[in-house]
Every structure is written in C-alpha cells, then in structure tokens.
Design brief:
The complex is a heterotrimer of chains A (261), B (448) and C (755). Chain A has 8 helices and 11 strands. Chain A is an alpha+beta fold and 261 residues long. Chain C is 32% helix and 16% strand. Chain C is α/β, with parallel strands linked by helices and 755 residues long. Chain C folds into 4 domains: 4-102, ADC-like domains (N-terminal domain of TfIIb, Single Sheet), CATH 2.20.25; 112-182 and 387-453 and 488-512, Rossmann fold; 188-373, 3-Layer(aba) Sandwich (Dimethylsulfoxide Reductase, domain 2); 590-725, Barwin-like endoglucanases. The chains are: A alpha+beta (261), B mainly alpha (448), C alpha/beta (755). Strand 11 (249-250) of chain A pairs parallel with strand 28 (742-743) of chain C, so a sheet runs across the interface. Bound molecules: ligand MGD and iron/sulfur cluster (5 copies).
Amino acid sequence: MGKFLDKILERFKIYRIPGYYEKYDHKWTMVIDLDRCNGCEACVVACNAENNVPVVGKEECGNKRTLNWIRIERYVEGEYPNVKVKFIPIMCQHCGKAPCETACPVYATYHNQDGLNVQVYNRCVGTFTCATYCPYDVRRFNWFTYKRDEPLNQQLNPDVTVREMGVMEKCTFCIQRIRAAKDRAKDENRSIRDGEVQPACVQSCPTGAMTFGDMNDPDSKVFKLAKSQRKYKLLEELNADPSVIYLKRVMKDGSSATHEE
Amino acid sequence: MAHQQHMKSDISYREVNEDVVRTMTKSGVGYYIALFLSIAGVVFLWWLPWAYQIYTGQGVTGLQTPVFWGIYLTNFIFWIGISHSGTLLSAILFITQTPWRRSIYRSAEAMTFFSVLTAAVFVFVHMGRPWNFYWTMPYPNQRQIWLNFQSPLMFDVFAISTYMTASMIFLYFGSIPDLAAVRDRVTGWRKELYGALSLGWRGTDAEWHWLNKAYTFFAVLIIPLAVSVHSIVSWDFALSKVPGLNKTIFAPYFVVGAIYSGSAGIVTLMVILRKTLRIEKYITTNHFDKLGMLLLVMSLLWSYINVLEVFTGWYADTSFENEALKYRMFTPPYSYMFWLMIFTNTLMPLLLIFRKLRASILISLIVSLGINVGMWIERYLIITTSLPRKFLPYMWHDYSPSLTEISMTIGSFSFFVMLFLLFIKLWPSVSIYEVKEDIGIPMKKEGH
Amino acid sequence: MLNRRDFLKLVGVGGAGAAAGFALGEKSKNPSAELIPYLVPPEDIIPGVANWYTSVCAQCSAGCGIIVRVMEGRAKKIEGNPLHPINKGKLCARGQASLQALYNPDRIKNPLKRKGERGKGEFQEITWEQGIAMLSENLSSLRNNKRETEKLYLLTSSIRGHLNSFLENFIKAYGSSNYLQYELFQHENLLLANNIAFGQDTLPYYDIENTKFLLSLGADFLNTWVSPVNYSQGYGHMRQGRPGIRGKVVQIEPRLSLTGANADEWVPIKPGTEGLLALGMAYAILEQGYYKGRDAQEWKNILNKYHPKDVAVLTEVDERRIRALAKEFAVNKPSLAIGGENVASYENGASQLIAVNILNHLAGNIGKNGGVISNPKGASLSNRRGAIKKITAFAKDASNGKIKTLILYNANPVFTTPKTMKIEDAINNIPFIVSLSGSMDESTAMADLILPTHTPLEDWGDDFAEPSVGYSIATVMQPAVSPVFNTRNAGDIFIDVAEKIGGAIKKEVPWNSFDAFLKDSWKKIYDKNKGIVIQETTFDEFWDNLLAKGWWRLPDISSLKPGHISTKGINVYLQKEPSKFDGDDKNYPFYLCLYPHSGYLDGRGANLPWLQEMPDPMTSVVWGVWVEMNPKTAQGMGIKNGDMVSVESPYGNINIPAYLYPGIRPDTVSIPIGQGHRLYGRYAADRGVNPIEILPFKVDPRSGAIPLNSTRVKITARRDAPGNMVKMEGSTREFGRKIVETVTPDEFSKMGMEG
Ligand SMILES: Nc1nc2c(c(=O)[nH]1)N[C@H]1C(S)=C(S)[C@@H](COP(=O)(O)OP(=O)(O)OC[C@H]3O[C@@H](n4cnc5c(=O)[nH]c(N)nc54)[C@H](O)[C@@H]3O)O[C@H]1N2
Ligand code: SF4
Ligand code: SF4
Ligand code: SF4
Ligand code: SF4
Ligand code: SF4
C-alpha cells in the first residue's frame, strides 16, 4: 500500500515539476524573432490551410468568432507623425505550466511528453473553461458545424481531424508534422534532425522570423537562438512557462503608455 | 429554553393541521393559471430554445472569443447563491435552536433544492456538447476518460451533487412526520402517495428520537458543505489568472454573497407565500424583523468585500487591474449596472437599520427584491466585465447576451416558480409538527 | 528544412506522377463524383502518402516556385519550393491561399453560351465541341468572307512563358497583330525609368538582403510590391541574419504601409514630391562631396535647382532631416534606394523613379552587392512592353467598331480600369466576345461564349520571372491534380480551333496539345544547351529532372551592364515640380492614395475565402473595404471609426466606411484596391466598393501606366448609411503591458554578436 502510494506521489511530483519534460526525448519550442516579423500574415493562411481551420464569414467575424489558430496582434503607439507600429504573432504558447490544463475536467487538454499542450477533440465536452483560463486567448471554439462549399472540402488535410460542433481547438504546433517526422526517423533508425519538423506557419514565413525545434537538443537552432539577449516570453509574470520564445524587436522608443491619453 | 412565541398563540393544533392540508388540497383558479403560465414559460422559454441551441450549436448565444462565459454562468452562480441560506439557514437556526425558524424552514429548504437543480441544469445549458455530460462523472469506462481532479469544475461536480443530495435528504427527513400527518388526513391517491412517502411513520418515541439524531447530523454536515459549495464555485473563477477573477477574497466573497442573496430570496418568498397561501398567522412581522437583521449584516459584509476588491485593484495599480476596474465601474452599460448594484446592495439595505422598517413587509419585499436584482447583476458583472478585458488588448471584445440566452434566463425563473407551485401542492410547505412545538400546549387538547 | 537529396526523392516521382494523374484526369473528367476515384490506381499513388509536385505561383507576377502536396489526387497544401531561387521555400498569404482558386465552388464548370441579353449573366451550358465550333466558325467567317483578320483582338493577363509565344504565333498565323496584355500593376513606370537611366528594359534585382541602409520611397516591398516573398526574405536577413550588422530602413510615404510599419523611421512626405526629396538628397550628397565620380560637377549643375532648403518647403520634410538622410545614405555602404508603386502611380511617376535611380547612382549603389543589381536578359519571352498604352488604343478601337471578335484570356479590364474609360461600353460594341476564363468576373460576364480554362494547379505551362535574382530563370508549371471541372488548357483551345479552321493556321500550330508544344519548346532549349550547361544525356532525363526541381537557370543572352547613369539628356526627365492632381484643393481637400490590398492585390484574390478572412495587417478589417483617415481629421468632421463616408472625386463618388488610422497624413486618405467586385463568385461579390472607379481616365503617355494616385477627393459623412466594417482588433494600445518588447538600436549594438 505504501509503495503504491509512493508510486502515485512520485508520478504526481514529476508532473508538477516545471520542465519535467526534460526527462523526455523532446521539448518542442518555437522562437519568433520580432525584429524579422513584418506582420504579413502568411503564417495565418498557412495554418488555416494545413489544419483544416474553417472560414466563418463576415457576420461571424463581426461576432469575434474566427477560428484561426494563429493571429498577428498589432499595437500602435503615439500619434501622427510619431506613430510606432509593432506586430506579434500569437499562437498557443504550449505552456509548461498551462493554466488551461488545470481547467479541463475531462483531460481533453493535457500535457504530453514532448512538452506540447495537446487537445483531444473527442474528449472535449465544451465547458469553455480552458479558453477563459488561457491568458493568451488562443483557444477557439466550434460554435457551429462549419460547412465548406463543395469542392473546397477536397482540400482538407487528411492528417488533421475536422472538428465538430461544440469542441475547443487551438494550435497544436502542427503535431501531425511532428508525428510524421518521428515516424520517418524511427523507420530510418535515427533521431529527428534539427529543422526536420517545420510547422506550417514556420515553413511559410517569408522573413524567417519563426524557428521551430527541440530545446532538449543543444545543437538545435532554437537552443542557440534562445540564448539571445533579446529573448523574452509573453506575459512572463503570469508564470505559465510558455514554449514560445520571442526575440525583442529593435526599435527606437518602443515603449507604450500605461494609460490612454 | 426560553420560550418565545412567534405566532399568534391562540392557534389550535387542529387549525395547524387543517391549514397546512388546505394549502395542499384546495387550489383556486389563480393557482392553475400560475401553474400553466410557469409550465408554458419552461417549455417555450427554456426547453425549446435549449433544443434549438443543442441542435444548432453554442453559436446561438452571444458568447465569443474571449468572453466564453456569459449569462448562463451568471444564472448558474445566481441560483447556486439562492440555494444558500435555505438549507444553510435552516441548519444553523436548527443547531442554535432559534425558534422563529420553524414556520419558514420547509419552504426555505425546498427553495435550496430547486435552485440547486436550476443551477445544475445551467451547467448543461452552458456545455458545448451536453450529450456527453456524463464524461464528467467518475465511473469505469473504456474511453480512457478519467477525471482531472485538479480542475475546479471537477470540484464543482462533486460539491454540487453532494450538496444537492444532502439538501434533498435534509428536506425529506424533516418532512416525514408531516407527510404522515397529511397521510392521515387525505383520501384517494394522496393517501397512497403520502403513505409511501412517510415510510410508515407512526410517531413513536423511538422514531422521534432517531429522526432528531439524523436531523441534527445532517444539520451539522450541511453547514460546511454549503460553505464549501460556494467557495468552490468561486474557484471556477478565482483559479484563473484573469484580472477581475483571480482574487483570493473570492471564496468568502461568494459565500457571503450567496447567503446574502439566499436570505433575500427567502424574504421575497415568505412575502409571496404568506399572501398567496393565506398563512399570515404562521409567518409574522417578527420573522421579517429577524431576517432583516440578517440581511443588514450580510449587506455590510458584502459591501466591505466590494470596497476591498476595488481597493486591492487600485493599490496593485497594474494596467491589468486598472483596466478591468475601469471597464466595470466607468464604462456604459456596465457602469449603470455597477452603480445600480451598489444602490440596491449597499445603500438600500441600510433602511433595515430601523426596526420599524424591518418589520414592514412592504419594505422587506422591496429591499429583498432589490438585493436579488443586485446580486444577479453582481454575478453578471464578475463574468462579463472581466473576460472582455484580459491580458492582450488586441483581443478585447465585448459581450452582450443573445435572445436565446435571455429567453433561457427568464425560462429558468419560470422553472423555479413551477417547481415551487408543484411543491406547495405536493408537500406540506409549513412544518406542522414544529409549528405545533412553537405554539406550545393549547388549552383544549386535540390529537395531532 | 528538407535537405536537397530528400527533397529530390520526394518530388522525383513528380514527373511521372503528374503525367499519370494528368492522363487519368483526361480519361475521367469528373473524378470527384465517383466513390472510388481510381479504378485502376496509378502505380505511384499510395493512399495516405503524399506526392509533391513542383509548379509556379500565379497569384502575382513575382513568379515564386511552389510545391503542391497531393494525396489521392487531391491538392492539400501549397508550399514554397525550397530549391527555387526567388522564394527559397517561402510563400506569402496569397500563395498559400491559391489552393482555393483550384477548388473554388464558383469556378465555371462547363463551356457556356450566352442566352439572354449581353451582360445580363444568363448562360447556357454547351459541350466543348459546340464551343470550339462556335469560335472556329466565327474566326473562319472573319477570315474567309471579308478578310478582316485584323479585327480579331486577343487580350490576356500578363503571360511570360511559352504560352505567350504560342499565342503570338497563333495570332500572327491568323493574320492579326492585336495581341495585348493588360494588368493593373505592371511596373510600367519602373521599367521606363530604368530604361531611361540604365538603358535596360528590365527590372533590376534589389539586393535588400545585403544592404545596410534601405531607403524606400513608397515601396511596400514586404507586402505587395514586385516580389514580396523574395524581398521579405532579404529583409529578414538584412535585419537579423548577419551577426553584428543590422540594416536600417527608412520609409518615405504619405500613408504608413506595412513596410513603413516595420521601418525604423517614417517620413510622412507630401504626396507627389517623393522624387524631389530624392533629388534634394542627391544635392546634399554632391554638396558634401560623397560622390567621387568625374562627372560630379556636371551632376551639381544639373541638380542645383534642388537645394534641400527649397525641397524642404515642397516636401514638408525638414531640411536637416533631408541632409541627415542624405548623409546616412551616402555613408552607410552598401545602401539602397527603391521607388515603389506609390511613387510610380503619380502622373509623373517615371520621373520620380528616375530621381531614385540617380540617388542610387550618386551613392555608388549600382551593380554593388546590397545595391541595385541588373538582371541580364535571358530567353525572356515576354510581350508586355507598352501593353497599357495599347489598352487605351484598344478601348478606342472597340468603341470605333474596329474590333469584330475579342478573345479574353484571364483578363478583367472591366474591373481594373477607371469607369471614366468606359471600357464596358466600348466592349459592348464588339459583335463577338469570347472569354477564356476560370471564373465569372465582370469582363467574362460580357462574353457571348465562355470557354473555361484550367487553374495553374491543373495546367501545363512555364514562367520566366521578372525581376529575377541576378540571372534568368524559368519555372515550370505542371498539373498537380487532374481537372476538377470540365475545363481546358488555353493553348489546347487554340489548337482545336486551328484544327477546325485548318489551312495555314494549322500548319503554324502543328501540335496535338499544348503540353506537346511546351515539351517541344523545351526540347529546343535542351538541344541548344546540351553539353554546354546541360549535363543530362537524354531529353527525357532532363525533362524529368526539370519537373522534379521545378526551375532551371537560363543561360544569359545579354551581358551585365555597369549601370552608369549619364548626365547627358537626363535633365529633361527630372522631376521639376510636385505631381499634378485632378481636383482643386478647395473643393477636394484630400489626396487620394490607392494601394493594392495585401490579399486581393488587384482584385484577383478577392474570391478566396482565406484571404477575405485574413485580417488586413494594418487595420485588421476582414471581408470588406475601408478608407483610412487621420483620426484628428476625422474627429474634426465628426467621423467615428466605422462610420460611412462618401469619397468624391471630380469623376464619381463611392460610399465606404472610415477607418481612423494614425499612420496617415491629415491631408491624405487611402483606400485599398481589390474589393468591390460585382461578380466573381460568392466570396467576392458585393463586398464594398472599387476605388478605381472614381479615377480619371488618364494614362502616362510615355509608359502607359494608369496614375492611381493623382486624384484629390472630398470626404463627407454619410449619416444615413450604416457602417458595415468588421475589424478583428479590440484595442490597438498596449497599455504598457510589454507585449511586444523592444530594445533600442543602441542597446542592440551593445549586445554585439550575441544579440
Ligand atoms: N451488419 C454488419 N455488422 C458488422 C460488420 C458489417 O460489415 N456489417 N462488420 C464487422 C466488422 S468487420 C467490425 S470491425 C465491426 C466494427 O464495429 P464497431 O467496433 O462497433 O465499430 P463502429 O460502430 O464503427 O465504432 C464504434 C464506436 O466508436 C466510437 N468512436 C469513434 N472514435 C472514437 C475514439 O476516438 N475513441 C473512442 N473511445 N470511441 C470512438 C464511435 O462513435 C462508435 O460508437 O463490426 C462488425 N459487424
Ligand atoms: S509569416 Fe512570418 S513575417 Fe509574416 S506575420 Fe507570420 S511570423 Fe510575421
Ligand atoms: S497558451 Fe493557452 S491554450 Fe496554450 S498551453 Fe498556454 S494556457 Fe493553454
Ligand atoms: S472546453 Fe473542452 S478542453 Fe476546454 S476545459 Fe472544457 S472540456 Fe476541457
Ligand atoms: S504551429 Fe502549426 S498549428 Fe500552430 S500556429 Fe503554426 S501552423 Fe498553426
Ligand atoms: S509573392 Fe506571393 S503571390 Fe506572388 S508569386 Fe510569390 S507566393 Fe505567389
């Protein structure tokens, strides 16, 4: 009995230690250089195409119910002619200590061994709690059953589930591409190469602002980029331990006023 | 025990019996009209819109990114809040042997049960896939779905179902002697029904002894349960990081708010029952005086916590807190609601300082109704002014409820009324035996 | 990134697979209707395993190489071809979305014949045989009976590959010389300016990647201008690809574009004076002695009218700032100045762009890495020069009844010309109009006969990108999937027609199909270069490798020019004064600045739902159009964000919601082009207005460009009309929350290589 309890406690503890996934093979990480990103939104459309993200139409856009998994936030500071514009792509940050995960009563969203915050559509009962808990507002809900006008449906990616009404969804770090790379590596009896996994957004990004890779691999590009003095994490003070690392934009006077004039 | 009488002392035991049975067997046209309207309200304002929502999707609501919670959860907390006091008050007053409890506690407990029920239905109304609701229950299954015990929603499932069960049993246990009394005075199907419900109660000493024991046990159990239920409901919000929700004060805040709104609910109910059932002699101004004091105390507590909330936000002086507060207090239409709430929940109850006004049934009704409205607004504001002002301003979007949501909200009140209307016909809504205890031994001896 | 060998292995099946898929498509024209798409599955198609086919993106004229992911005969995803030198594996949003052009539900599915009145949009489905017969009969009668072959006009979008030479051949063989190409953004002024300055009729390669100081005059090169993916890559590298070096960008434009938003400095110059600023800077450079050429004195003489003090008054840019910019530009080598669409679109656009060239020349940026590098002429087959000049002639000819038969191919002049040009009425005079088009756009709706063509993902073809990357390249287009609908290759249609007409024309077009012609043409290239730059021993091997790799470097046929701008005769081309605008400044107080929308470009992307729902980068508006106004100006007029306003030029007015945008001069308003289709499918139709409609009918006589930015307008609030603008942003203010954190350039340089 005591042994049994210890075992449970041990597992519990492992789960609770930040960065427990370091014990696993991978810790997938995205580095986004804001000094490269130009806000072009190629990543947004690329993600839509890869991940069967539905188009909702003008009215639903007005209702703020778009389903896109990644968005470019734009902040404008100052008044004419001293206008400063800043862009930042935001997708699920795959938090190490994800607030959304504690919220879900049915484990429809949980942490996997690779440091990913995964979403199991089949399990979700649609309580919205994860989405309210997520500080980054990246979770998207299937308010309706979204139809695709024939033959647009022929484009749907067979590697990605088409979600049904009533479930929550969000960026997966293109887990299907991670899986494919893992399978390929296993078939060829090797480990995954750095850069072998390229999520759709990273793949498309014209400026090369995004880099994806394994933080557990000290030779990886992300590992090196993450040493940059410009690195920071979004809303770091919330202690959610995101897996997306941003590199600060270089600009004169990029600060903003706390209060609106 | 100092024996203070709270009813007109010239009531006889027979009168009590007959009054109570009368409320159950004799119904005027007004009752049937009310019942019909409430059932129509439930079907057309709640179930049909809900069916439409289930069929079409949660998109028929006004919810959006990032305001994923709206009026449904407002109603959920509101009804859970109303459920407090009923049973909780009854239990506290029972343990402290407060005599004025006796004529009101039965309906108060019923109120608890019905409001928890209404609240529980809102959980399903709020779900994206309510047909899978049983996935939130811990039972062996092969879908590899087990519960996340870290989730406050999970605590909710347990807390609410336990609370609902406990308050149901509490209500039932306390009613057994009365059900037997009714059994002995009715005929036909009623006799059969109450015969079964009264579990063969004969009124022996042993039975009284055990009933008392069990009743005390439940009374003691229910107090921490009730406190925990609303603490847990508050954690649904407080465990998030959202400015305006992430507050350590939330558990006591919710419990105080719940008792506050629950007591106000009781007062409102008492006024209505007293008039419609013509049982003025059992529910007197004395009751309103006592409940008035309770309301006053809760009002002060509630106001204190509100001030504290604003103070901590102001003191922290982060953009997150400031914007959330600014949005709630100074941005129409929410500012109107906020200041209305302060008026009904902080200012108006100050009238109750005066004994004369406390004893006035009209004032009690106005104040308690005001508090109910104010407390509904409080819950609404907590949700709909925090979520639209989360961390990333690019995602600041406002929420307003859709017709479907408003309809279901009204429908839920119909549902509650309907249950109550059925209750007063099917259940002795004033405790016969305890009222008799209160009357003391009348001059002329008559069987009970 | 895929390594090269893996990649080649992946697409190695491409050649054979495409052929198989194509043959299959020919056999079963509508496979989507069948439960089992492949009765006899092609050997290389494994269910669940993707094939990748190389092709070329046709959403703009940049000519990026793409690879198409195909599973069981369906295209799933488009990505950049990692081996392609223009986009090196990357793609813009428009390229990503082009899949939806293939599977667009509003494509024309069968040949159509006009039923009701012309332009009413009533058509009846016919067979291909009937369609070809109709066209052949018409062309035969034109030719046989009255010998009016010159009355056949062919108007296409800009085509650069072998299809172009094919069509040239056909038209010539038929006996007409009226083959013209028209598109809204064809960089005519840029070509003219380069021709005048360098004597080169090509677009140069702007080496943004290696520059240190980039001065962009109204070029939205990160978004829509010329070759956005290539330039964006260059930009990324220029900013953070060179440890220890971070290039600086200064954007000079009246309305802050996406590129401007990313620049280090924004100079909100007075519209129409950009070229003057460039010349003022040139003056300062000469004055400071940064230019060491022997002709320095000559330049000084030529430029003495452009003293920064005078320029400052005209441009509303501070004199000190002009001098500072000039110094930075001259000192930070290599530097680069580019003049964009915004500048090219004034009535004296070419002159302004010449000023930019002069600036580059005086700072010594021509022919340098990190500067302007000229593209040698390869086997370019383009016919585009002066095309727009012809569209005006075309409109005249059409109204004068000089045109008997018009064949349109993927061209939509009704949408992309000002209303004042009355092209719709002109076209209406033509007795017989045939449209070879995949979608029912405004021009196609005027047709009597519609012969639907393939989308690029179903088609054979090739493309010769311009500008290239310092050498000429060809990109091949191969069918990634079999045709979704009953459509055909445009070349095939002409081959069938030639067959029907017979005689001399058939002799000139002897091929059975366009892909046979294409292969034949490439065989010629192969034969010519075999053993010189081609290693493959057989043509089939060469062809397979070409399809697998997706592109090929053409041997240069002209040599690189040093690119010296001579002072001789340049004087007449210099900008003398600010551009002229239609509309007086009393009645029309605002400059109107039009720009291509980042998704719809000239309107062609408006039928793709992904692009409609892509928030505009600068305003976050979706599914609509808006006019940008300075918040102060708007407030003064009582206009709030989203309110309807009327934008009125001397030539017409449109109603449009206002977006209050701090990145625009108070005297300027700005509208994106691309929305406002009347037709063009369910996603595009009836979404806002087309601002081109209110432009004057004005064409630059030298280049033929339509000046989009030479009109003034007045704005009035339309309180009667409800605003219908949907934007995705909540607040645009950051409230000190440090969401986008920044470091100053100084802090950054202290970080050193580690930064
Ligand atoms: N009449 C008739 N009977 C047959 C056959 C036949 O051809 N005709 N075929 C036979 C054969 S070959 C087979 S294999 C069986 C198949 O019979 P079953 O095994 O019963 O298969 P299904 O009914 O397709 O699916 C079972 C359930 O799984 C659920 N489900 C779907 N996805 C998931 C998931 O991710 N997790 C979980 N937990 N559940 C999920 C579905 O909702 C469904 O309710 O039937 C046999 N019986
Ligand atoms: S594609 Fe790249 S550059 Fe464009 S918005 Fe996305 S991250 Fe930024
Ligand atoms: S970003 Fe949001 S959804 Fe993603 S892991 Fe963090 S909390 Fe969860
Ligand atoms: S919406 Fe789905 S994933 Fe989110 S908490 Fe509820 S059940 Fe879990
Ligand atoms: S990682 Fe994949 S799922 Fe996530 S935003 Fe990028 S493309 Fe979308
Ligand atoms: S820039 Fe974009 S639209 Fe143009 S060719 Fe390249 S990918 Fe296509």
